[in-house]
């Protein structure tokens, strides 16, 4: 299989200014309407899954619940903490919202080779495209981290600062795994352009061709979007409300909106990279006109809503994990798996470019997988033996007594340490019995008997 050529992006950049402005307004409206529908759909689906009614008061079937929530938040009092950095406190919600909108500028809604007519002008159903469009998406998502960091720091409060640190670590950790899952797509499509990646899925979606990358991205996008079961930065039990604790009114609405916009953005990326983008699913793909005209926008929207449904399904089904479990999953599971899978994909692509037979490729891949499994087995065997020797050595040594007040402040025990036994408080019966005994020992009759 020859290497892919540089994609032809000459169709972009020739639109008149009014058409570019119209496309930008359409993308903004599309994302906002999707967010509104997403919020209502989440509440209705959660109500259906949890056997309850859900919103049913505002509008027909409760469909205007999101509009009612927005009006309520705008009418609430806007409070700014006295110790906050006011400039950064106002800037943080804006930095959280704008990058999520910017990423949708390179998402294709239709083919670039089959333009549509808008007010008599032929144009492509995409704002623009770049030779490094996916890197542009990663860069804009990295800018959104500043909104989280500044929201926690500028509030001048401890709990938002803790929430901001946790959220930032979460985003950075899972962006690494997300980028590695993208790399396998780049190798197979031969391009970082979003339109070229969709065109490369003409015969087979990358979800089928690269299933490991698809699964890694599916987990990473949930973690990066702070969605359940990975919503630790906003867990009410231990952080009050996370990095947005001190926010209220419209600024709080901006943060809530940025979370849903981010969810729509990562869902659009999944559709583009792994689910064929605007291409019609089978059996509709056998229809000759399914991928022409305005139809591709419909297929893209249906796939987008389907991915958003997975977010809602995960929220209704899975409990929140602990933060240490979440970080272990990212650094010790997803990233190593993504690296090994990337090396495997690169090897297969290199052998395909060298015109190796398919049977030879399978043989080499099978031999490599078996070798990795054997090496892993040997490493685990010797590591377990070393850990067993260390445990036996620690068992022979007397365990030092743990003093929780050694440093002057109470500290919890580390793994392997035990707290000293707490003195048991005597029960009421024991205290009454001890009092009766003391009285009998001090009575005159008892003293005379002792003297005799």
UniProtKB/TrEMBL annotation:
PROSITE patterns: COMPLEX1_ND1_1, COMPLEX1_ND1_2. The keyword Methyltransferase does not apply. Its main location: membrane. The chain crosses the membrane at residues 20-41, 87-110, 130-153, 174-198, 204-223, 260-281, 293-314, 326-349, 361-382. It holds the Pfam family NADHdh. It is a multi-pass membrane protein. It catalyses: a quinone + NADH + 5 H(+)(in) = a quinol + NAD(+) + 4 H(+)(out). It is found in: Cell membrane; Membrane. GO terms for cellular component: plasma membrane. Keywords: Cell membrane, Membrane, NAD, Quinone, Translocase, Transmembrane, Transmembrane helix, Ubiquinone. One of its GO terms (biological process) is aerobic respiration. Residues 389-452 are annotated as: Disordered. Residues 443-452 have a biased composition (Basic and acidic residues). It comes from the Bacteria. GO terms for molecular function: NADH dehydrogenase activity; oxidoreductase activity, acting on NAD(P)H, quinone or similar compound as acceptor; quinone binding. It is an enzyme of class 7 (translocase). HAMAP family: NDH1_NuoH. NDH-1 is composed of 14 different subunits. Subunits NuoA, H, J, K, L, M, N constitute the membrane sector of the complex. Belongs to the complex I subunit 1 family. NDH-1 shuttles electrons from NADH, via FMN and iron-sulfur (Fe-S) centers, to quinones in the respiratory chain. The immediate electron acceptor for the enzyme in this species is believed to be ubiquinone. Couples the redox reaction to proton translocation (for every two electrons transferred, four hydrogen ions are translocated across the cytoplasmic membrane), and thus conserves the redox energy in a proton gradient. This subunit may bind ubiquinone. This is NADH-quinone oxidoreductase subunit H. It comes from Streptomyces marincola.
